[in-house]
Amino acid sequence: MEKLKKFFINGTWVNPRSDETMAVISPSDLRQIGTVSLGNEQDVNDAVQSAKKAFTSFSKTKKKERMDLLKGLKRITERRFEDLAQAMREEMGAPISMARSAQADAALGHLESFIGALAELKERAVLDSGDVLLKEPVGICGLITPWNWPVNQIALKVIPALATGCTCILKPSEYTPLSAMVYTEIIEEAGYPAGVFNLVNGVGDTVGRAMSKHSEIDMMSFTGSTRAGIMVTKDSSETIKRVTLELGGKSPNIVFSDANLERDIRYSINECMFNTGQSCDAPTRLLVESSCYEKVLKIAKKSAEEILIGDPTKEGDHIGPLFDKIQFDRVQNMIDVGIKEGASVLTGGLGKPHGLEKGWFVKPTIFYNVSNTMRIAREEIFGPVLVIIPFNNEEEAISIANDSPYGLAAYVQTSDIKKAERVSSQLRVGAVHINGGGYNYGTPFGGYKQSGNGREGGLMGLEDYLETKSLHGL
After folding, report:
1. Rg of the chain's alpha carbons, rounded to an integer?
2. Which of 80, 297, 303, 464 has the fewest CB atoms in 10 Å of its CB?
């Protein structure tokens, strides 16, 4: 835990220049589990100079050298797997079974897919014109990751940077520094040259802005809120950086009357509430064909009330708390907003679940009698809150689904596969999950509209970290 008070710069754990710190609190029982140092502009500059020096040589490494390093990273990640899972269980309240099967699993799943993508990547190609096309590392990368999927997002940013020959500075969420510390130890043990990877903890308004504005950082990759993504983009524009963003969502889930309602509604409720609703692509708008609306309400209510809530240290398929008081208060406020807007509470509502008064636990909540103009249907709540909206026909379903500033994901439930594909082709989103189809490692992840730009994962995830150079006259 003492490393939480240090930063990892130029291959060593160093004392920060800043003396500012913050308590790290367990969301399940409100214990202080550590103290993290919060960096400043000088700390960022130290990390940038370290990355700049390392880039000179690391950018020239052969693919085989980088591949060997990734394979070593995989071996150590496998050995430290449980440490990653326990860190996220502690810092963000992820139930330990889910922390293993989803949160920590992402460290290996993405790594394996990037190893495969790097093997496929052509760093030199001859065009039909005879000119030569080269793919080269973009440079020094600033990486900012969120608290809701800490290691998942670290893996999606750090691994492609390392794989392509870039150097980087990681600013994880200051609220979830334990998993970032463990991941940094894994990279350190894997033997990456000093300065290739650097870690600076801190708040977005200080460390994040210093990174975005820094003239020697070539690329910023950010995952978080749309509001913060706009700030990263504005700050980065001063030096014409490349910017990739994975932002918010308000994903529609279209349920047609020909779906397997018992199966698909149960899946839909569980998918919305998974990770306590703290996923940017959660299906939080359930659009239901009018002819089966009343039946869906009954299934949805029963499914939500069967969801277990409990202690993250215990194994099982229950959900845990929200990650902090700020998020708890926001979710409670939005439930109150929904009630005042005139929506009806099908189940859940304000307050904490019985017996879970300590910690930031909330009731899985479902609203019906909702219109798509209500705030609860338009704003990302980031908690276990679902709205149910009826539609009369396919055209109206598509219209409601697309009537959102976001475009990260959508879900479609129907027994008619041709209909599923027809509807999917008209949804302005980066991914469509049909009849429970899940995301697979290596598939590019990202969204349309205010859900961001760029794609993370697989070959496309590598390409964001590469520049293209053409050679003429060879």
Report:
1. 23
2. 80
Shared domain for 287 and 425, answered yes or no, is yes
Domain that holds residue 78: 2-247+451-471
Handedness of CA 135, 71, 47, 145 (dihedral sign): positive
Q: What is the mean pLDDT of residues 171-190?
A: 98
**Both tokens of residue 51?**
């990355």
List the alpha helices (DSSP H) in 203-247.
Answer: 209-213, 226-237
- As a whole number, the mean pLDDT across the chain is 97
Q: What is the pLDDT of residue 2?
A: 82
Running DSSP on this structure, what letter comes out for residue 254? E
pLDDT in tens, 281-310: 999 999 999 999 999 999 999 999 999 999
The answer to whether the pTM exceeds 0.70 is: yes
d(C-alpha 347, C-alpha 49), whole Å: 54
Alpha-carbon distances of 437 from 182, 196, 213, 277, 406, rounded to whole Å: 32, 37, 40, 18, 21
**Active site annotation includes 280:** yes
pLDDT-derived band at 460, boundaries 50, 70, 90: very high
Answer whether 171's CB lies under 8 Å from 211's CB: yes
DSSP notation for 34-50: EEEEE--HHHHHHHHHH
Residue among 91, 174, 246, 289 flagged as catalytic: 246
Alpha-carbon distance 150 to 87, whole Å? 10
C-alpha 350/C-alpha 106 separation (Å) is 33
Encode pLDDT of 192-231 as tens digits.
Answer: 999 999 999 999 999 999 999 999 999 999 999 999 999 9
Residue 112: CB atoms within 10 A of its CB come to 15
Q: Which residues of 432-456 are buried (b: 16+ CB within 10 A; e: fewer)?
A: bbebeeeeebbebbbbebbbbbbbb
pLDDT tens across 57-107, in order? 999 999 999 999 999 999 999 999 999 999 999 999 999 999 999 999 999
Based on the residue annotation, tell me whether 292 is a catalytic residue of this protein.
no
> Residues near 218 by Cβ (< 8 Å), separated by ≥ 6?
138, 139, 140, 141, 241, 242
The answer to whether residues 135 and 46 belong to one domain is yes
State yes or no: pLDDT of 1 exceeds 90: no
Q: Which residue out of 141, 272, 280, 292 is catalytically annotated?
A: 280
Indicate whether 445 belongs to any domain: no
Same domain? 228 vs 323: no
Q: Are 430 and 91 in contact (CB under 8 A)?
A: no
